[in-house]
Structures are given as structure tokens and as C-alpha cells.
Specification:
CATH topology: Immunoglobulin-like
CATH architecture: Sandwich
Largest sheet: 9 strands, antiparallel
Helix content: 10-25%
CATH class: Mainly Beta
Mean pLDDT: 86
Length: 123
């Protein structure tokens, strides 16, 4: 049952216009998606994934108290990767294997009751 709820949630997220907007390149070379006005850049380095979180004015948003995860659909499998905050504005996690091209990555995080969600397609 949980699997079907999760798949339905992923379908809703994928169809949301704010999340599926065209991705621009950020200062760290990764795609940037805005969530509630906050730019979130996704960078992957081998099996490491990093999200750079910005405040609504573009400045780095401190992630010290942020909780988050990345949900990844790759090759017909879905995995959830817990993300760890790092100074000044990073959320990072470790994958079991490298992402394949066209993998879907969904960033979800919360800070003081404020939720952020961003969707990316690996290149």
C-alpha cells in the first residue's frame, strides 16, 4: 500500500509546474530549481549528491537545523537517501551506485515548518 501511495506522490510532484520548470545551471555547475522562491542546486560527484540551498533573496540558506532526503527513481527502482546538513548551505548524501542518465531525483526538506521540494533529471 505504501508503495502505491509513494508512486502517486511522485506522479503529483512530477506534474507540478513549479517543480518541473526548466532547470538552469548554478554556480557549482548543477541544475537549479526554485521551490517556494528558494533556489536549490543539485550537484553529483560519483556516488556523492549535494544540494546547495539558497534563501529567497539568493543568499546561502543555513541548513544546520534542516532535515531532508532525496528520493531517486533510477532503472525502475526507487531508493531514498537521507541527507545531512553541512555548513554553510549544503545538504548531502551518499548513493550506493552512480546515477544513470535520466534518473529522477526529488529533493525534500523541512526547516522550522517550512517545506521545500525540487525535482531534477540526472544528465
Amino acid at each position: 500500500m505504501r508503495k502505491y501511495i509513494f508512486l502517486a506522490m511522485m506522479a503529483v510532484i512530477a506534474t507540478m509546474p513549479d517543480l518541473a520548470a526548466a532547470q538552469t545551471k548554478g554556480s557549482n555547475g548543477g541544475p537549479v530549481v526554485k521551490s517556494q522562491g528558494h533556489p536549490i542546486e543539485f550537484v553529483r560527484k560519483g556516488t556523492d549528491i549535494v544540494f546547495y540551498v539558497g534563501d529567497d533573496d539568493g543568499s546561502p540558506l543555513p541548513t544546520k537545523d534542516m532535515r531532508g532526503r532525496a528520493t531517486i527513481q533510477d532503472g525502475g527502482k526507487t531508493v531514498t537517501v537521507p541527507l545531512t546538513p553541512a555548513s554553510p548551505n549544503l545538504m548531502s548524501g551518499k548513493l550506493q551506485t552512480e546515477l544513470s542518465p535520466k534518473a529522477i531525483v526529488v529533493f525534500s526538506a523541512s526547516l522550522h515548518g517550512h517545506s521545500l521540494t525540487a525535482r531534477y533529471t540526472a544528465e
